[in-house]
Design a protein that fits this description.
The chain is α/β, with parallel strands linked by helices and 230 residues long. It has a single domain (35-62, 75-227), classed as 3-Layer(aba) Sandwich (Rossmann fold). 31% of the residues lie in helices and 30% in strands. A six-stranded mixed sheet has the order 6-7-8-3-9-10, with helices on both faces. The protein has a four-stranded antiparallel sheet with strand order 2-1-4-5, covered by helices on one side. Helix 3 packs across helix 4, helix 3 (104-114) packs parallel to helix 5 and helix 4 packs across helix 5 (147-159). The two termini are 24 Å apart. The mean pLDDT is 91.
């Protein structure tokens, strides 16, 4: 699978609830190719966020394997998984989660320091803020930015250390339709300009046509896979 950056086989995840085992994921196979925008589509409770957390090394499956950059990340130490998350993966969440006491520039610099980025940090910060159209807002605090602007800072932060892949959990969920579409257009542009690979979850039907590959998840299983050629 030389064109794959990530693939998973037989992913299962169970949780204990009131003494009973609840199976949230029921043997999922998925393949993510380099340079693609992959959408995990499903209603709330379908298992898509649980799957995203396992693919991004935030959680461990009950069964199955996840191969990222040709390494089985379900079969390495937690220290190695943490290193993968810090250096090779970027994260975007619905809640944005910018550090409120840091301005946009400082939020991105913090991530570069954590990733031990070896390039010119100042140059990289200004470059990624330029890509998301916020170079003139770099000294603004999160509360001085709109919801859409905060999400664009979060995206710039996620890509700043040049990760191999970005995982985004409902990145448009807290935005209005226009701002959500702008985020999706930005994702497509980042894939083109920065050679990124992005995996995101959503339940918004309006966004499906913007993904390269869409996996539909229902009740912990993949019930459909489609490719967009536009």
């Amino acid at each position: 699978m030389s064109d794959s950056i990530l693939y998973a086989r037989g992913i299962r995840r169970s949780f204990l609830s009131s003494g009973k085992e609840i199976e949230v994921l029921k043997g999922i196979d998925i393949n993510v190719q380099k340079g693609k925008l992959v959408i995990l589509k499903g209603r709330s409770g379908s298992g898509k966020t649980t799957l995203l957390n396992i693919l991004s090394a935030l959680d461990m499956p009950t069964g199955g394997q996840v191969f990222f950059d040709e390494t089985d990340i379900t079969n390495v130490s937690e220290k190695e998984r943490e290193l993968v998350r810090r250096k090779k993966i970027g994260f975007v969440f619905q809640s944005v989660a910018l550090v409120p006491i840091m301005n946009a520039y400082q939020n991105i610099d913090f991530v570069l320091r954590m990733a031990e980025y070896e390039g010119d940090r100042d140059e990289r910060i200004k470059h990624v803020l330029g890509l998301v159209g916020l170079e003139e807002r770099m000294l603004h605090m999160p509360l001085q930015l709109s919801g859409g602007e905060r999400q664009r800072v979060a995206i710039a932060r996620a890509m700043a250390h040049k990760p191999m892949i970005i995982f985004a959990d409902e990145p448009t969920g807290a935005l209005d339709t226009a701002a959500g579409l702008n985020v999706m257009r930005l994702f497509k542009e980042l894939i083109r300009v920065e050679n990124m690979t992005i995996v995101m979850t959503t339940h918004d039907q309006n966004l499906m046509q913007m993904g390269d590959v869409v996996y539909e998840i229902e009740d912990g299983e993949i019930i459909g896979r489609s490719e967009n050629t536009n």
